[in-house]
Amino acid sequence: MKYNLFNYPYESKRNCLVSKNGVVATSNPLAAQAGLEILRKGGNAVDAAVATAICLTVVEPTSNGIGGDNFAIISKGDKLYGMNSSGYSPKNLSIEKLKEKGLKEIPRFGWEAVTVPGVPAGWAKCCDQFGNLTLEECAQPAIKYARDGFVLQPTVCENWKNAAEIYQKVLKDEKFNHWFKTFTKNGQSPHVGEIIHLPDHAETLKKIAETDARDFYSGELMHQIVEFSKQTGGYFVEDDFKSYNADLVDPIMANYRGYKIWEIPPNGQGLIALEALSILEKKDCLTREAGYFHNEIEALKLAFEDGKKYITQPEYMPFDYKQLLDKTYIENRAAMISDHAMVPEAGNPQQSGTVYLATADKEGNMVSFIQSNYMGFGSGLVVPGTGIALQNRGHSFSLDETRYNSLKPHKRPYHTIIPGFITKDSTPVGPFGVMGGFMQPQGHLQVISNMIDFQLNPQSALDAPRWQWTGEKNVLIEKDFTSSIAHELERKGHKITVSLNANLFGRGQIILKNDAGVYVAGTEKRTDGHIAVW
Questions:
Q1: Measuring CA to CA, which residue among 306, 236, 303, 300 is closest to residue 445?
Q2: Among 83, 177, 372, 474, which is 20 to 30 Å from 250 by CA?
Q3: Confidence band for 190, pLDDT divided at 50, 70 and 90
Q4: Using the 8-state DSSP alphabet, how is residue 268 labeled?
Q5: 48 with 356: CB under 8 angstroms?
Q6: Which helix (H) or strand (E) is 242 found in, with range?
């Protein structure tokens, strides 16, 4: 069968949007418009991505912020570049120190989970290396929204309310007071349509923009973060920030039915999506029925178990991570899939709350960009007077010294956020991504198979009902998942549960470019998704 991402036999419930001059697709209309504004001012797709990402920290703080991390895959001049701007643990934090405190795991809230934020360095790296404009120019729309006010979108408002309810119950220590001062009014979360002002956030963005992020890592902002850490039982020292850099990396790839699917290498979990696609490609069922979904779920389970066991900062992995994509190893993993659901185990190849955005410009440049504080607002810690909500990415570390992803000083943890990209015959086709914690590689697998195996257009691929494997034989499905297929999956041994919570199934964006240079874009129905075209 010949696969063609632009030969759609199915009609979408919603039409894709098309454009020739530029596209910005993300989860918030104001952020998408910020990116489009930068394109119109002469910025390229990278500048638009940075402007959109900066704006998302203002208009969607429930999912990302200045104190988080970001990753990107950038297509420029038919070459792909990867960026890893994830932070590492403080040099003064160790398993021994946490065990002395009686901890058996790293808590969700508080300093133990906070890693060095990579977000500002990632913005600066993108602009400096690939942009037409400066970081200061790209930050202006976000600064204006933070200073002059913006109106909340419904999904953001709902997530804000849920976070505030949880925080009211669990964040009792005085060090968390600044979160409530920054993100609530008299202890109450904002409501839909309310105009929000974030003046501290605006001033912080201004300092970051004017100094190309240097202030955050070696200036006044850095001193404020470190001082807050010292005063409230944190672990940061100045060198944690002064020694930090965003890294340019080579994306990794797997072939899937004539296309190349690209992800960022570990410490990110994109490797899981590539391994799952490689296993799925070995299975012959290509009709949209229970057998296909069964193979898809089983392939994902096998890949996920490998990822959970092995993925961490590459130098701490027991082997070259590319061995998980070795042809013989993939064939052996695929052979383990029977007609009945399994409880997966990791193999041994040595023996055989996140925001996503996609942009494109009239020159053909495209960007896949993802950014997160992890688990909503993050650690619950906000640096006084700055609006900086610090991430809790260190929660992913293990306190078991025998685990590859165990905590060590200045180590990057297993990371859930992953940008994706598609090429064909060395030609960039377009960026894609599905945000949502451990749902992300599962979402990548599903939207790629929807587009390539079933020739759904980007909007249909995103709208299609999703499933999520949650461990052992347990699978969540959306309410509009085909009931006859769900019943057949149950007969194959899967434990199927219908979930009405759309947040569990991720939120995605896709932009594809056809042979005429026209962009075809889809956005997420499960949030306030928006596509701005030019």
A1: 300
A2: 372
A3: very high
A4: B
A5: no
A6: helix 238-242
Name the one residue in this structure whose structure tokens are 């906070």.
Answer: 114
Name which of 131, 122, 71, 128 is nearest 246 in CA terms.
Answer: 122
- Burial class of 91 by CB neighbour count within 10 A (0 to 12, 13 to 18, 19+): middle
Query: In this structure, how many other beta carbons lie within 10 angstroms of the beta carbon of residue 315?
Result: 8
Tokens of 219: 């200036």
What is the three-state SS of 422-467?
A: EEECCEEEEEEEEECHHHHHHHHHHHHHHHHCCCCCHHHHHHCCCE
The pTM of the full predicted model, rounded to 2 decimals, is 0.95
Among the listed residues 5, 1, 82, the one whose alpha carbon sits nearest the alpha carbon of residue 522: 5
In 241-365, at which residue ranges do the beta strands (DSSP E only) sit?
247-249, 252-256, 259-263, 355-361
Closest CA to 54 of 270, 359, 266, 267: 359
Q: What is the pLDDT of residue 2?
A: 43
Q: Report the C-alpha gap between 179 and 382 in whole angstroms.
A: 5
User: What's the 3-state SS for 322-357?
Assistant: HHHHCHHHHHHHHHCCCCCCCCCCCCCCCCCCCEEE
Q: Which SS3 state, helix, strand or coil, does residue 74 take?
A: strand
* Inter-residue contact 175 to 233 (CB < 8 Å): yes
- Please tell me what DSSP assigns to residue 393: G
Positions marked active-site = 354
Residue appearing with tokens 């900062």: 313
Both tokens assigned to 336: 């383990």
Residues 19-60: pLDDT tens digits? 999 999 999 999 999 999 999 999 999 999 999 999 999 999
Q: Which of 117, 123, 151 is nearest to 29 (CA)?
A: 151
Confirm if 36 and 51 have CB atoms less than 8 A apart.
Answer: no
| Four-residue CA torsion sign, 430, 436, 442, 447 | negative
Structure-token pair, residue 177: 């007071």
Query: What are the pLDDT digits (tens) for 454-480?
Result: 989 999 999 999 999 999 999 999 999
By DSSP bridging, strand 474-478 and strand 495-499 are: parallel
CA 30/CA 351 separation, integer angstroms: 51
